[in-house]
Amino acid sequence: MIYQILKKTKYKGCPIYIRRLDKVFEFLVIYKNELYSQYVLLVPGLFKMFYENPFSEKEVRNTTLILIGQAQDLINKLKEK
Q1: How far apart are CA 27 and CA 18, in angstroms?
Q2: Using alpha carbons only, what angle is made at residue 20 by residues 15 and 23, rounded to the nearest 5 degrees?
Q3: Rg for the chain (alpha carbons), in Å?
Q4: Distance between CA 64 and CA 25 in Å, rounded?
Q5: Model pTM?
Q6: The domain containing residue 51 runs over which residues?
Q7: Angle ∠(28,36,45) on CA atoms, nearest 5
Q8: pLDDT at residue 50 in the model
Q9: Tally of domains in the chain
Q10: 34-41: strand order across its sheet
Q11: Which end of the chain is more exposed for a tag (fewer CB within 10 A), N or C?
């Protein structure tokens, strides 16, 4: 099983963590001492399914960028309340 912290960053003072647990990619956001998360499950291609690391660097990078965008959207919504 692959476990990676892909990115640590901050947005509007809120920490964002992007991590990978095998085929599950998720973000964690801490806002006012509350933990928020959301995940994406990537399904590898048929022939790559049995590889130890079935995703290319580009796929991992693009998924990370998507999750950062989703985390930023969540923070914006939370700050509007």
Answers
A1: 4
A2: 145
A3: 14
A4: 8
A5: 0.87
A6: 3-80
A7: 55
A8: 67
A9: 1
A10: 3-11, 14-21, 24-31, 34-41
A11: C
